[in-house]
Structure formats: C-alpha cells, structure tokens
Amino acid sequence: MDFEEFRTRGKQMVDYITDYLKFIEQRPVYPAVQPGYLRPLIPDSAPQEPDSFEDLMKDVERVIMPGVTHWQSPHFHAYFPAACSFPGFLGDMLSGAIGCIGFSWVGIFHCFLF
C-alpha cells in the first residue's frame, strides 16, 4: 500500500466506522452464533496473494460482524458505552502514526499525551 492508497482506504475506513456507529442500533446487540461458527467461513490456509480491500471489507460484514457484541449500541445495557468517541478515534490514529513506544523516559512523555 502506498501513500495515496492509504489516503483513499483511510477515508473509506472512516466512512465505514461512521456508518457503523450511526446505524449500530439496527444491528443485534448480541451475536446469534454458536462456538465454531467462524471455521467454515474462513479458508483452510492463508492466501498466496493478498485479498483486495473491497473483499476484506465484505468479509468484515460477512464473517466478523455476525460474531460481534456491539458494545456501543444504545440497546446494550450491561456497561456504559463510553469506551470510544470520535475525538478518541482521531487520537488513536495519530498515536498509531507516531508509533509511541515507551521504552525509556525519553519516549514515555509524549505517549501519555494521547
């Protein structure tokens, strides 16, 4: 992935996350799957070539989302849905780009700013 593809895919991911959270109340809060549901949905071995981003995102909906508990749903009443926010997402993106690793006091200070 080069810089321009990262820019394009990053914008698509922000759109996906925005739609996911905007319409999360339309998803079932708790997954209606049984243990082992994932096994027949994934290949037996890793692919020889990478999948396209479009196929990856289709798999997120087809394979991953059916097994997810949607903690941020307004219909989920077990815990307060305070684990994420739009400003928090932006901070996570910046923190990931900086790659803060707090091995010593020199690198630790800015780790805590985020």
Description of the structure:
The structure is a single chain. The chain starts with a helix and ends with a helix. It is mostly helical and 114 residues long. Helices cover 46% and strands 0% of the residues. It is built from four helices and no strands.
Described by the principal axes of the CA atoms, the overall outline is globular
Please write the string of helix (H) and strand (E) elements: HHHH
Average pLDDT figure: 87
Strand content: under 5%
The whole-angstrom Rg is 18 Å
State the secondary-structure class: mainly alpha
Largest sheet properties: none
Uncertain parts: none
Helix-strand layout with pairing:
Layout lengths: L2 H20 L30 H12 L21 H13 L6 H7 L3
Entry keywords:
single chain, 114 residues, mainly alpha, 4 helices
Task: Summarize the structure in short.
By secondary structure, this protein is an all-alpha fold. It has helices at residues 3-22, 53-64, 86-98, 105-111. The protein starts with a helix and ends with a helix.
